[in-house]
Specification:
alpha/beta, CBS-domain, three-stranded mixed β-sheet
Length: 176
């Protein structure tokens, strides 16, 4: 499965000059956990709820005066939209990140999150469970069908023996 099949396509961006308070308003309005930080048309970072907690609240910075560019994560990791999902999971695990912007043709086209991966694993788990049950049921049906065929073949062989025996009886009668 490819990243583009699982990613969230509706990504939210924020200008790097906006304040943390404005970023929080975006979080609240859109129910997201991260914003892609832009400087004009260029991606310059990502700001997450965790960034705000650790770099603003715990450092007692004023959210109405602190700029997004001052606390954002600048060294963002990205993944190509056509990369396998396993690669995204590996990157997220390796760098201990929960959100990974998705790139296609040098543009951010989505974001894949830990939640996206978890939901995908759940879907695959359900599908595997259904396939396992289908296989078990098919196997039982196949065994039943094979047993019926075996019985039928035995009956046909017996019928042939009986037919041969009857033919023998009729032949013996004709001889007498």
């Amino acid at each position: 499965m490819l990243v583009q099949e699982v990613m969230t396509k509706n990504i939210l961006k924020i200008d790097s000059n906006k304040t943390i308070y404005e970023a929080c308003q975006e979080y609240s309005r859109n129910k997201v956990g991260s914003l892609i930080v832009m400087n004009k048309d260029m991606v310059v970072g990502i700001v997450t709820e965790r960034d705000i907690i650790e770099r603003v609240i715990l450092n007692k910075k004023n959210p109405t005066k602190t700029k997004v560019m001052d606390i954002m994560s600048k060294d963002i990791k990205t993944i190509h939209a056509l990369a396998p999902l396993e690669k995204a999971a590996k990157l997220m695990n390796e760098y201990q990140i929960k959100k990974l912007p998705v790139i296609l043709n040098n543009e951010i086209v989505g974001i894949i999150t830990e939640t996206d991966l978890t939901e995908t694993v759940e879907i695959f788990s359900d599908a595997i469970e259904e396939l396992t049950q289908f296989y078990a049921a098919s196997r039982e049906n196949l065994d039943t069908m094979m047993n019926k065929w075996e019985d039928l073949i035995v009956e046909l062989r017996n019928y042939r023996k009986i037919a041969d025996f009857k033919n023998m009886d009729s032949l013996m009668n004709e001889i007498k």
